[in-house]
Amino acid sequence: MNIFITILHIVVCIVLILVVLLQAGKGASMGAAFGGSSQTVFGSSGPGTFLTKMTTAIATIFMLTALSLSYFSLHKQPSVMDKAVPQTQQQAIPPAADQTTGAGEQKPQTVPQK
After folding, report:
1. 66 lies in which domain range?
2. For residue 7, is it left (φ>0), alpha (ψ between -120 and 50) or beta?
3. At what angle do helices 2-22 and 50-74 cross, to 10 degrees?
4. Is residue 66 part of a domain?
5. With 104 labelled, which of 21, 32, 39, 91 sits at a CA distance of 20 to 30 A?
């Protein structure tokens, strides 16, 4: 489920970028704003075009997928590896070579004086 939403989110992101780049900017209608624009109900820009409505729909899908991805990342299901019992490795500690001298004879230990 998480992989599907991530792929959908990336595709929606790319489509949103393309739809926004296809729209005409506000500067394209500046000539109509300063001279002889028609007096319509919606103004000189006219009603919302297909690209504007499509941008709104895709932006809504983008926000929903972003929210669902953040929800799934917070409420993550436990992994199979979380249930695995860790194996303890016991390391053999080699005997200290300087504790004995020769054939099993122990060195006298000195106590540091204060």
Report:
1. 1-24+49-76
2. alpha
3. 150
4. yes
5. 91
